[in-house]
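To: structure desk
From: M.T.
Subject: fold request, one chain
Message: Could you run this one when you get a chance? Sequence is below, nothing fancy, just the single chain.
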Amino acid sequence: MTDFDDTSILLCEHDMFGRLLQPEFWSIASLSVICGRAVLGDHCQAERCGKISTPMIVDFEFAPVDPNLRVGEQPLRLFPKRHCSQQPLPIMSTPHFLPLLDPTAASLVPSLALLGPVLIPASLVAAILPTLPAGTSYYIEATQSTDDLITLLDGGASRLVVSPDQLRSLAGSVEKDRLILKVQESELESLKDLALSADSLLLVSDNVHTPKSLGTKSTLYLAPSSPSVSQLVEQIKSSRPATYVLPTSILTTGPTTSTHLSIADAFLAPIISDRPDSLFPTVVSSYNHSAKPLGLVYSSRESVAESINTCKGVYQSRKHGLWRKGETSGATQDVTSIRVDCDSDALLFEVVQYGGGFCHLPQPTCFGETSGIAKLEDTLKARFDSAPEGSYTKRLFSDEKLLRSKIMEEAEELCDATTKEEIAFEAGDLIYFALTRCISKGVAWRDIEAALDRKSLKVTRRKGDAKPKWENLEKNGDKQAKEEDVKTVGGAEVKADSKPTEPVPKSFPESTTDDAPIKMRTTDLASLNKDEKKKLLLRPVLNSLAMIEKVKPIVERVRKEDDAGLKAMTAQFDKAQLSSNIMLPPFATPDETALPPSVRKAIDTAYDNVKTFHAAQAEKEPLVVSTMPGVVCSRFVRPISRVGVYVPGGTAILPSTAIMLGVPAQVAGCKEIVMATPPRPDGSISPEVLYVAKLTGVTCILKAGGAQAVAAMAYGTDEVPKVDKIFGPGNQWVTAAKMLVQNDTDALVSIDMPAGPSEVLVSFAIRLHSPATTPNAFNRPSPRSGPPRNRNHTLTPGHRGQDVQPSLRSFGSALAS
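Reply: Done. Structure tokens follow.
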């Protein structure tokens, strides 16, 4: 920039001209400037142009300047962009406005969700999130939140609006582009250095600003403290690329008034058209096919406003005026997204296309047929609906074992492939069979993309190691290791590499009927050899990996079908038809018919004893230790906010379990205690457990058991509150479900531990008393005063399932006989 003198003429690009107007060049007296008309309009502020004596405007936007051009006797000197040391500020496709939702915004949400992200106060997240259309991007205003901020990001928030203190605590642990620093305009100067830790800045100010006017490269959001509706359209336009934050209390789907701003007017404010008819070129893409283009149309301000208000595809025909897509053909569209390009002069509509397709010709798009994943998905959906009986595709859809085998086979072949061509070929096969599995379960490619998008928003990452099953296969390095020897024990598959390593018995004893008496097997150890003793003492074998695979469909059904799926499984497994999955307090105290006074008194005594013990455990004050001068370390306890306690009830009534789980949660001060227990066939809860729930301050009773109850507490439903940690015992289904959900980052739930099968060994010797020391009518030992009562203790764990192992050991034959 030092190569020209006072009579030089400079042809410059947009950013070069902005550089030219910096103070170090203001001393030039007779510099002539040739630039585009639009460029001069952007940069030539009056106070700066006065410093340049003879600005000459040549509109080369439409008529390029002749490189041999001379002005008077002076040649035109060209200085390429590389001479400019300062790079231009990036102009990103930021939203035109960011709506701040409040509880009254329900009717506006469908329209607002089309246009970009929405901003939700942290206190309203739980209430508003369920009302958002699927795939809506949202930010959270977290400056007043006491929740864990990373949990909010893991939960699906694209960005957080944070206070300066919150930003300091998150610096380095969260990527900059996920954070928006909120500051008052008066604080901006003192927080400039801190603002570098966030990618965006939310400025509370009634003044109009742009990133350039503030001298920042951050994405800028402006939140006026008292927005004036009459000025907002012009402010939105003049502040670009800054984004205005507008409360939904001043927005409307109707026309703009003195008190409310039309959503369409706010969105259209900065949009421009370079066409004589003022229309906007509009690309229409398919929501169901990874935004694949369907065709090119035109939009007007009127058509865009109607699309926003109706969420339907409405465009502008250059011949016939307003065009409501599908009004006559039936090929209607639901609009899922409307976006503006980076120059604010073209639109992108993403739609769900119905009917015969977008094009008036017999083809799905105006550009011909689909290809790749889109074509494969459409083909598989068509075959799922109408594949001929006996065809290979029909077999794949109906035979889950065949499909599973093909997926595993193709995955192995992909891993074994080495060349580029082989890898592409095998990956194609794997995608084919994997997508077949998805289509058979109602999962679309769009659902997979949405899942990937959700995963990309997570801040907390798992370690990512392979499961032991696959690590072991890799270590063996032998394909034969994959061919597992599976045996069936008691109707369940048990793999050869499952623990224990001792021989698997052919069967376990089972009752022939549900109400058959329990019989004790008697064995004389002295008569057994070493191998027979080992088989006798063998624990029941359960394969945890196999059980987890069995509970996955149950868990997924709860996630997909929500409360309806939960009710259906309660009807299937517990034979109870429920109108609601939950009971809420206040819980009525059962009457004496349902809960005898003696039982109630016993429960009260147990409750008091357990509560006394746990109250003594509670931390009275934090542990504070000074480890060295100036260094103080402390340990303090905080209650878990939301806990789930599982109380089994399928084969026995367990008020004791309810007490032992509910009391610690009550003493700890947990705000929400969700107690899950199976209902009786009439839909009621056992009065003993219900009474304990009342005593322990349970906030919600989930009338469900098994893996479905665990899933409902882990993920939450419309009725069932989501919990942060699940406690309690259960059978193998409950244990497998707990293990499954604790490893799912979508659940964000922990568990106490995976409970194993119950084991009890009662061991004693019987000594016969003499008639003189044990008087009774028959001169015999009293059968009620000796060890036989221990049979009840031996059989106690039998209610927990067929995998329990109660044993009684006697040193005499009298009891055994």
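Reply (cont.): DSSP finds 27 helices and 33 strands in the chain. Let me know if you need anything else for the meeting.
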